[in-house]
Design goal:
The structure is a homodimer of 224-residue chains. With 224 residues, chain A is mostly helical. Chain A folds into two domains: 17-69, Homeodomain-like (Arc Repressor Mutant, subunit A, Orthogonal Bundle); 86-212, Tetracycline Repressor, domain 2 (Orthogonal Bundle), CATH 1.10.357. In chain A, 71% of the residues lie in helices and 0% in strands. Chain A contains ten helices and no strands. In chain A, helix 1 (17-42) packs across helix 2, helix 1 crosses helix 4 (66-85) and helix 6 packs across helix 8. The first copy, chain A, is elongated.
Chain lengths: 224, 224
DNA sequence: CAACATGTTGACCAGTTGGTCAGAATTTGA
DNA sequence: TCAAATTCTGACCAACTGGTCAACATGTTG
């Protein structure tokens, strides 16, 4: 939705950046909708072009292939994911860190539900594009967090639980509010999900996570 | 995978049931794979036919349209879902009932991962086919369980948590082991998920659920 | 055997697919 | 002002889409 952008002073070599950027964003924004709803194979460049309000050939001027659009989109989607990845360090209080992480992931589900759905589609397909990410960045991150959890539990701050399974469950519980939104609206009897619903979700997930890890006492949400 | 079936004595009117049934099952089994991986729009009848080892026109002899295949498949998929729905009554011990439910749902993810993925795809698309199911059966089931949870909490057997959110989280946590299998294999560093992995998942989810609900003490898994 | 239902199939169809391309329109920098 | 770079787009393409159909094959039953 961040479309408008105008750079007045266009330089010699870097000129017409504004047009290129504006259209690129328009295409990616349209593609996000189509890929989220139809998946990679079901999405058509024509539909992306229609939503972006550009002729199909113009879309192909900016992106050679459908796959290129998907790749570029995936990159823009993974950025916030990776950001929410940082945080959670040994020095944190486990309660605060986990509560904050859950909160941030629920917010992300609310703010970028389409991104979450595209990611879900990619996983269901067997991660043909993101398999490297899974094997490298994600794997490494989980290994790091495993060490942190181990240290926390050695210090008696929490139970000795599997960090891998813990995060798998946190991801599932938080992302489900984006991916399965229809189902959730139906179950909650809502027309639309409101702030209260996301708050209730975050609260229950947090409670389950903290108690499941044997973490007691109050915790303040880490808003990093 | 339940393909072989032979009814020797074919009766007059109900004759050639065996051929019809065998081919129908072959097609549905093939369709399960294709729909799970490609989604409804991405799936092609040609691919379904290829996997079923039948000419495309023969597939269309048994199912008029792609949508018909999808509909029939969806019915066969929802059956186990609905079965696992029952159970959980007021007379149960909440710990046993919830632990058993989690266990059953994890088993289902292991045994029918493709079914779970097709369901996930359907939800991501906005449930164009299952919207009635969501509004009626599912909604009603959750309302029932809400009453049960309320009664349990009034009897002091557990905390007063939102049954809706509770089940949403249980569904998400259990189904993620089917839907996001690639991601989970990567995170756990496994080539394939084994019994131990599913057991560990069920155990942690159960612990989080029970403690999150303020249910203490041992619990035996309800194998209904 | 004849008749009749059931099952099988290649040929075919109009519409759509992802993608190309030549050329026209425009923006740009000097 | 003007030439070069960039952007835009309709026409076009071979491959594929979901689906139809007429002809044929294979039982099945009396």
């Amino acid at each position: 939705m961040a479309e408008k952008r105008q750079i007045r002073k266009s330089a010699h070599r870097t000129g017409n950046r504004s047009v290129r950027m504006r259209n690129t964003l328009k295409i990616l924004s349209a593609a996000e909708k189509v890929f989220a709803e139809k998946g990679f194979d079901g999405a058509t460049t024509q539909q992306i072009a229609d939503i972006a309000k550009l002729p199909k050939s113009n879309v192909h001027y900016y992106f050679k292939t459908k796959r290129d659009i998907y790749l570029a989109l995936m990159q823009s989607i993974m950025a916030p994911w990776l950001e929410s990845f940082q945080a959670i360090s040994v020095d944190d209080d486990p309660g605060d860190a986990l509560a904050g992480y859950v909160k941030r992931k629920v917010m992300l589900s609310r703010e970028r539900p389409l991104a979450s759905r595209i990611f879900a589609n990619e996983m269901i397909r067997g991660a043909p594009v993101l398999s490297d990410f899974l094997r490298n960045e994600l794997r490494k991150w989980v290994e790091e967090k495993t060490q942190i959890v181990k240290q926390w539990s050695e210090k008696g701050k929490m139970d000795d639980v599997s960090a891998a399974h813990l995060f798998i469950i946190i991801w599932a519980a938080t992302q489900t509010y984006a991916d399965f939104e229809v189902q959730i609206k139906s179950v909650l009897g809502r027309q639309n999900l409101e702030t209260d619903d996301y708050d209730a979700a975050a609260e229950l997930i947090t409670r389950m996570v903290l108690r499941g890890c044997g973490i007691h006492g109050d915790h303040k949400v880490n808003q990093t």
